[in-house]
Amino acid sequence: MTVNKIVPPLVSGAVLGLGHSLEFNKQRDVLLKRGYQEHGSIFTIDLALSKGVVLIGPEYQQQFFELTDKQLDTEKAYEFLKLHF
Q1: Where would you tag: which of 16, 28, 43, 74 has the fewest CB atoms within 10 A of its CB?
Q2: Segment 8-47, tens digit of pLDDT
Q3: How many angstroms separate the Cα of 19 from the Cα of each of 12, 23, 50, 55?
Q4: What residues are paired with 77 via a beta bridge?
């Protein structure tokens, strides 16, 4: 089975090896505004070890929150939140 994955466009300004992680931590609002200005309501940010898709607007957020766990693997997406003892 072939799966076609469409990845939203990447915001400019990513630093090699770090992506947007420094800007995300220090000036998140600037990064998100730039992403919206460049690409509109859906875009990707590079957080060094992972990519994040930003959805701006209730119409896109509603679709995201209405997806079932079978359609969206939330366990994998939020694995970094697990405590490891």
Answers
A1: 16
A2: 999 999 999 999 999 999 999 999 999 999 999 999 999 9
A3: 10, 9, 9, 19
A4: none
DSSP label at 23?
H
10: three-class secondary structure by DSSP: strand
Residue type, 71: Q
- Enumerate the domain spans of the chain: 21-81
Quickly list DSSP for 38-76: HHTTEEEEE-SSSEEEEE-SHHHHHHHHHS-TTTS-HHH
Q: Cβ contacts of residue 39 below 8 Å, gap of 6+?
A: 8, 9, 11
For residue 82, give both structure tokens: 């697990």
Give the pLDDT of residue 28.
94
Q: How far apart are CA 71 and CA 85, in angstroms?
A: 30
